[in-house]
What does this fold into?
Amino acid sequence: MKNETKHLRASSYSNQVEIGDGNTLLFSGSTLCMDLVPAEYAKLLTQGTDFSFLSPGEKKHLLKRGHLTDLTRGRELTEFRKTVGQVSEKIAKSNQKLAQANVSFILTYNCNLSCSYCYQNTLPRETRHHSMTGGLVDAFFSDCFPQLYPRPPKHCTFTLFGGEPLLPANREAITRILAHTRKFSSSRIDVTTNATTLPAMLDLIGPEKGKIQNVQVTLDGDRALHDETRIPISGSPTFKTMMGSIRQLLEVKAEVGIRVHLHPKRLESAERLVKYLQGEGLLGHPNVFVYFSPINTFTSEQLSPGDLEVFRRMFQDVAAKASRPPSNFLFMNKFLKMQGKKVLPIARFCGLGSERFFVIDPLQDIYQCYEEAGHRERRIGSFAGGKLRFFALKKKYAKRQLLSLPECLRCSMALFCGGGCPVLAKNAEGSIFKPYCHQNKEFIGQTLKAFFLGKAVETGEN
It folds into this structure.
């Protein structure tokens, strides 16, 4: 440990995002402190160990906030590992108290669309013939649910998924699920759908308790790209149908999530879609949340320079007009209020490995990832015959968190990202104990920027 605190250097966990007007936001992935500095200062901070441009007071402030450090890289890594351990312990204790349940029902693996990029295309053909029955739903709530959640949960979120969950053949199962959820004092029902069969199910949707309250619909880009990629086997266009369904959903006062797929090298299509949604009065609508999602084939960590420019411009444009960033990292809003060393609840990327999130399918199998559902070798359990059984894979998944990801412990975004998608890491790298960065760094930085700019507008700051 000799001479390890003699010299200042930029922290390995310091992050930057340009805000505009010559300013950069520094945010520490270790201390979670945030400071606005001149962009030229931010650039110099990353170039070496010559900090003569800083006054003694500025050096002291940046050192205290965690943007500078006097520790060696090895010592800083050791301290960060301790921080991650503290976060993990806090989350474990918090989860015990929250008593929340999150259950997704895959009503069927069958779908009336045939999107070329769909991850379910690899499912065995025989799997698609199974659908969830009303009897199976009753058995789940009477026999399996109490075993999954021995402590009665204070709040439950139920999601209807597929295949296509709103196929008319699934109506019995859906009505049984809705009937059971009415018994919970606090619950929410979501559905992820292509919305092409919505009219036949519209009576089951609305803000009332015991109805489907939140509906997610995916658009692949503007009409031209969408009708090229998100289609049934017949090739019939679906954009007009889905947009009509979105308008019907708003008429019954449902909450609508519009998931916009980002296709590599075709981001201009998403930009045209954003302009269309604005013209339709959907950006900023109180019941609409628009967010971006790179499709599964979009696996590069960094976008090309041209795509990056389009993405950033489009992201901030949507955030400004909708008063909410088009991102799944919305917890970053809390980060703006943090002054001092606090923790964010991110030690794992998703519900895989947790005790609160389960995916139930028509074969009475239990999974913890939508992308693994239907591949029976990836199930974590089953509840056949009313008996709940867990398999060894569940324990393996429970070990997948930041402390088991050495590469992530060296990443400045680790506490914001949680290591990325474990299943996509397995597919790309051969192991769930590898990081999968996707565009997480860019999404996190742009989300924080959008919240910061929104806060500045609210307070009248320049």
